[in-house]
Amino acid sequence: MDFDFSPSEEQFRAELRQLLHAQLPSDWSTRSLAQAPDAEERRALARTISKQLADRKWLAMAWPKEHGGLAASYLEQLIFNEELAYLDAPGNGGVGVSSVGPAIMMNGNEAQRRLYLPRIANADDVWCALYSEPGAGSDLASIQTRAVRDGDEYIVSGTKLWVAGAQEANLGYLAARTDPNAPKHRGISTFVLPMDSAGITMRPIASMAGDSYLTEVHLDRVRIPAENLVGVENRGWYQLARSLDFERSSVAAYAGGKRNIERLVNLAKEDGGLIEQHPSMRYALADRWIEMEVGFNIAYRIPWMQTQGISPNYEASVSKLYGSELTQRIAGTGMQMLGYAGLLVPGSPLAPFGGGMARSYLESVGSTIAAGTSEVQRNIIAQRGLGLPR
Ligand SMILES: Cc1cc2nc3c(=O)[nH]c(=O)nc-3n(C[C@H](O)[C@H](O)[C@H](O)COP(=O)(O)OP(=O)(O)OC[C@H]3O[C@@H](n4cnc5c(N)ncnc54)[C@H](O)[C@@H]3O)c2cc1C
């Protein structure tokens, strides 16, 4: 089995790395820029980096050329995701590139493809995904937000929850119920929602990591032009299920984990006392390293399958599940190793890694919930992978 990347893939990796290093501040790796005081700096950097990537057509590189991509391979897309995640670089195009663009490509009409796809690939728009609701997360088909046709418009009312990046987005991809009398999976449609529409109010949700990236979005008789319906009315659930399938390999979890393990290993080498006082940490770090290597192999298999024309199914759930739980284990090992100092959050001059380990520890809690909980992933693996009854 040949695990090497091809020379052209390695060259792409090197060029990408060079671009990112040139854009990121030199002390980036020790800063904690997702925190509130630096959020604006991170946003500005995200805009610069995504524009630079877009100039090279790398932002949506796997898309067909006519939509602003390079028709790049799945493996090149994986390298892109891996490198940005390893450096914790912002500006990867977010849900616009990872799921909304592919959904419009698959389900939108020609006018929508021509309008939205080049703008996503060119980093002109910032998107958010408005799916979950207070009573509908894992069971997305239970959403209650209503869209009622009124002439050339739909009138939409309801509440969306846990919307990542809603405050920065100018466009949203919205799931709403268009037929309340149909079985729940068959009465949902998807829309493009301009986020400056009248009737939208937002309530930022303070996270345990100290930021307000997640938002509750209220829609009060918001009018959406009927032409913003994406795909076939009442087929939205099936369309969404397919578009969520695009974010597949979860390589970012392993790349971010690798960065954190390397930080801990380097610290242990610099401060011999750490391992002397806590010898069990040698074993813990070795275990996390092995798990991280295993994880990379799980993740690499996904684009390899896609290259062979095989659609990953439960395999993507294996990677999502293992990667998100490993993220938590690595952060946990880090906190154990750093002891009380690990509790210092960003802003404290004495915080190891600028408070980055505390931030990872707190942020990693959400990783086993976002984009499908661990229980949901285990259900998929049990049923589709092992063939167990429901
Ligand atoms: C960091 C983060 C970012 C997010 N970003 C977005 C976003 O941008 N847009 C968006 O729309 N949503 C977003 N979400 C919401 C996310 O998709 C939901 O939180 C997730 O799908 C779980 O839904 P829920 O919170 O309603 O929990 P529930 O579905 O109510 O689950 C509660 C518990 O029950 C378990 N459970 C549910 N069903 C089953 C089952 N069938 N079998 C076994 N156990 C089950 C779950 O695993 C969980 O432990 C985000 C969430 C997080 C944490």
Please tell me about this protein's structure.
The chain has 390 residues and is an alpha+beta fold. The chain has 3 domains: 7-92, Butyryl-Coa Dehydrogenase, subunit A, domain 1 (Orthogonal Bundle), CATH 1.10.540; 127-235, Butyryl-CoA Dehydrogenase, subunit A, domain 2; 248-385, Up-down Bundle (Butyryl-CoA Dehydrogenase, subunit A, domain 3), CATH 1.20.140. The chain has helices at residues 7-23, 39-55, 74-86, 94-107, 110-121, 236-243, 251-270, 272-277, 280-307, 314-338, 356-363, 374-385, and strands at 127-130, 146-150, 153-164, 171-177, 188-194, 200-205, 214-225, 229-230. Helix 4 packs antiparallel against helix 5. It starts with 6 loop residues before the first helix and ends in a 5-residue tail after the last helix. Flavin-adenine dinucleotide is lined by residues 129-132, 137-138, 162-164, 214, 366, 369-370, 373, 375-376, 379. Flavin-adenine dinucleotide (FAD) is lined by residues 129-132, 137-138, 162-164, 214, 366, 369-370, 373, 375-376, 379.
